[in-house]
Amino acid sequence: MVSNRPIRTAARGLMIAAALAIPVAMLSATSASAQIVISVGFGPPALPVYAQPICPGEGYLWTPGYWAYGPDGYFWVPGTWVYPPQVGFLWTPGYWGWGGSAFLFHTGYWGPHIGFYGGINYGFGYGGVGYEGGYWRNGGFFYNRSVNNINITNIHNVYNKTVVVNNVNYNHVSYNGGKGGVPYRASAQEQAASRDRHIQPTSVQVQHRDFAAQNRQQLASVNHGRPAVAAAPTPAAFRSNPTNPAAAARTNPNRPGPVVNQREGNQQQRIANGTRSGQLTTNEAARANQRQANIDRQVHNDRTANGGALNQQQRQQVNREQNGASRQIYNENHNAPAQPRAQPQPRPQPQAQPRPQAQPRPQPQAQPRPQPQPRPQPQAQPRPQAQPRPAPRAESRPAPAAHEEQHPH
């Protein structure tokens, strides 16, 4: 077996650096493939067998459990239902892969298509290639009941499709490549999906992983590959019941737990709803989640100190802190983060409008009366002068010719 002492020392530093870097990375999207965050000299244990908790409600997507690595070795991060950071995005699980000299962990990510996750059969729709647990349509997620635990009384977007898993010879193998690993390689379609726009694990997912790292019952060296809590309906349910599998498996909407747990689940759902609707910015959601994580840590410490229960004073203190967190979520949900907050504008004072001056009425102009035109006097037409009748001309009669009487001789 390869000695892992130097690698474990280096891994401790890498985990600290990764924990510091993730809050920044999760706020931004990337088109690069999943980032390798840690390497280990020996592979993770086999995947445990567990039942999927019932889906808490519409819009939740299943993220399968996996072995992560910390300063104390491998620990199990319970499978859980979470809200995606964006409608239409699917979860590509992280996976361990043999890199030639060590096992490398490839972080999971959100994206519009399922990418390569090492051919690992995580179950519940993640059979090693793609995802058969459901799909998005018209802004709603439709669940395949053949691989998901769905209460159809609360969730109506369901269908049934039989899923056939081809890599049955590697059902519980938790890593890709190397000796005994799944021998699959990324297909052209999976390689194309790796170039999509990606979103890193949400703050809720990161806090879920970090909380599991603090629970010794989740360490492989303690549970020998059988974690105390293998799955939980929500990260909040796991934080409230870190060592009680039955309580952690309860789903608040159907089987309500204590009041503190119920309020915690409600706060997480309000944060997720605000992020999906755009009313909460990523920074605002991160602050609200961090506040919830602080309250959860306090509840966990108080329960541990008191044998698993909270006394009355501690409950009152938690409720006061939850009230403050609730006000914070409400205020940030109603401050229109997508647009700059509108500053109150002073009301414009009504300007005194000058009264219109009375315009003098136009005096009617005396129009000159038309002067009567003198009637034209009839012109005396000169009477026609009587023309003197021409005197009858005396016709000169020719004088009678003198007749010569001729006498016969």
What letter string, H or E per element, gives the SSE order?
HEEEEEEEEEEEEEEHEHHEHHHHH
User: Which strand-content bin applies to the residues?
Assistant: 5-15%
**Low-pLDDT ranges:** 1-34, 252-259, 337-342, 400-409
Radius of gyration: 51 Å
Report the principal-axis shape: globular
Task: Write down how many β-strands occur, each being a DSSP E stretch of 2 or more residues.
Answer: 16
Distance between the termini: 212 Å
Q: Based on helices, strands and strand pairing, what is the structural class?
A: alpha+beta
Number of helices: 9
Largest sheet, described in full?
A: 4 strands, mixed
Whole-number average pLDDT?
75
Largest sheet, order of strands side by side? 2-9-8-14
The portion of residues assigned to helices is 25-40%
Description:
The structure is a single chain. The protein is α+β, with helices and mostly antiparallel strands. The protein is 29% helix and 13% strand. A 4-stranded mixed sheet has the order 2-9-8-14. Strand 4 and strand 5 (73-77) form a beta hairpin. Residues 1-34, 252-259, 337-342 and 400-409 have low confidence and may be disordered.
